[in-house]
Structure formats: structure tokens, C-alpha cells
Amino acid sequence: MFDFFKKKKDPVEESGKLEMNKEMFLSTMKVITDYTQRDVIKIELSNDECSIFDSKFGGLPYLGVDDEVPLSTDNKQLRLLGQINFADLPMNSYQLEAGLLQFWAMDNDLYGLDFENMISQAESRVIYYSSIDKTVSESQILNKYHPEGEGYFPIVDNFKLHFIGGEEGISIGDYHFDGLFTQEWNNLYPNNLISSYYDLPDEILYEDEFNEFSGFGHKMFGYPAFTQEDPRSSEKYDDYILLLQIDSVGIGDKEIMWGDSGICNFFITKKDLENKNFSKVLYNWDCY
């Protein structure tokens, strides 16, 4: 007699013990990373002295003569996370050649993150200067810049930024990754079907080779990394790409620390990036 109520097994259960090894994993990753290549600008830190006009994480921000420090919705000064002088960037497909882009956040236990509306910029801000006034002095800015802090801020010191252009394929944290990996694996190994890349054994998933595809590190563009999950899995953020990523990596005793060894991402739509419209940037950070 047929058992019409028998639970349907997934591919892994149906096929019993599958053959899964590192070479199969790397072969699948090569296919995926080859066709998902995207421009990336890797960021390296140094302890070099940096001015108010330089690209940096932390430190004293640039402010025009008539500009004020951005405020939260309750009128508290935000603190500078970092600023990118586009003149420092290598040639890139996003045509970022002139101006200064700043990233600000509140110094509180959530670093200004708005879980309910991640593009609200209620306690964070992304500000673009199309031109830079080189007559501004540090003393002028020090007279205006007095952010109130609760001692939580992830960047205490300042770091000068150096940029390296290149390309990279999709990272394991990107919310498109699981579907792409599963599809490509099943194409390559039809006798070893999987339902998700999580079906692979831990000894494959967590080997050093896997870290190559993690997406971690400081960078602009490319593919993001997360310790939790990609906020763009929500349909309303589907067209957002990575703008800037700040990892929990400093230099020696000069730390950058997002909670418990976390990571920060800023995302933007390609259209807004082309129009230099940074009013709807998605701000996210997470940690272990």
C-alpha cells in the first residue's frame, strides 16, 4: 500500500552519505567567483600622520567653514567613523574622482544603528562634499567638534587609509551566495545533490581555504561579510551594493572593535551612487 503521507526527503537524505571533499568545494567556488567578479577597492591602514583632508578612520573630521557637525535626532553631535577623499582612490568604474565622503555615527551602545529603519540616519550620517576648502584649519574644526560619548565607539584612534584596486567574486555572507553555490554544486555533481551549502561538512566549511571567500576586511565595494546575516535579504534593500566596510582590525594595540569582533557595512543603490545621493545609505553592523 502506498504511503501518501510519507515525508518527502531532501536531496541529502535521499542520496545517503554523499561524497564531499575540499576539491569539489573549491571547484564549485571557482565557477561562482569567476562569473560574479566585481570591482573592489581594498583598504590598508597605517599609522602615518593624517590631516583633516586625508582619507582615514577616526580622528578629526573635515568641516567646511560654514558647516556644522551632524546631529542626531535629539541634537547630540555624531562622531566621525571615517572619511574617504576620492582623489586618493585608484581608477574605478563608479567614477569617484573628486570630493570627500564622510561616515558618522552616535557614540552609544548601538553605535547609532537603527534596527527598525536601517536607512533612517537618525543616529548615523553619510555626508558628501563635492569640493574641499583647503583654507580650513584644524583649530577651526576643534572649536566646533565636541561629540558626546558614552565610551562605546568602535574607533578610538585614527588610521590613515591606503587603497588598492582589484576585483573579487561573491562572498559567503552575501545573501545570493547560498542559492548560487547550491545550483552550481548540483550542476557539477548531479550524483551528490545538496539543498544548501550548509549541507557540506564542517571540515570543509571551516578550513582556511574557506576564509579566502569570507569577504572580511576593510574595503569599498566588492562583496560584504557578516557575523550574522545580510540585511539586504529584505526585498526593499535588494538593489543595494556595498559602499564601505569597516572590519574589527586595527594596528597592534590601536584597535577597531565592533562589539565582540564584529563588522560594519554601509550599502547604497547604484543609482544613488551615480547621483552622489547619500541620503538613503543603509547602515549595518553585527558581531559574534
Automatic annotation (TrEMBL):
Pfam families: DUF1963. It comes from the Bacteria. Gene3D superfamilies: YwqG-like (2.30.320.10). InterPro entries: DUF1963, YwqG-like_sf. PANTHER family: SLL5081 PROTEIN. This is DUF1963 domain-containing protein. It comes from Thomasclavelia ramosa.
